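Re: [help] complex structure
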Amino acid sequence: MHLENIILQIKQRREELQITQETLAEIAEVGLRTLKQFESGKGNPTLQTITKISEVLGMELKLQIKPLNQIK
Amino acid sequence: MHLENIILQIKQRREELQITQETLAEIAEVGLRTLKQFESGKGNPTLQTITKISEVLGMELKLQIKPLNQIK
DNA sequence: TTTCTAAGTGCATTATATGGCTCTATTTTG
DNA sequence: CAAAATAGAGCCATATAATGCACTTAGAAA
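Output below.
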């Protein structure tokens, strides 16, 4: 699914920046448990949660029209 | 905020496609109430909800690294 | 191996998203 | 204009996301 990509990106980005889940959770002001669940693919996070995390990582969610050639 | 852009895009896209909230909600399989709340900026929808709605509109969420010149 | 650190999980509680129903307001249509 | 369609909002019940705490697991380093 597409969600997995997002999770993977977050995880990779965090690791690139060499931040632990604990630190990221603190800075982003989300519960550590929430971040752990998210990264381990367990949850269905709210937009707010993802946004908080993304921002700390210097990322953002963009909504875009699907390319036509992407029809699977 | 950035969330408003997403809401606006969803709304505009829906209107371009001339679909009512009711129809979109049905096709996307989300509650009409949920869609209404989302479009009116009231909610904090889950990723699943946004994904469902986006897909029906031929859109998708992308996570990207913020452009540097975007620092406000 | 032992120790330490980071990540993942079970459980319980609280907060809140979802969704149905109803009513009102606004917009569109005839 | 009146009627119909559409959107927004209040109330409420249910489902579930967010969270803390404690414990387990995995991996790295000594």
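Residues 30-34, 37, 43-46, 49 of chain A lie near DNA strand D (CB under 10 Å from a C1').
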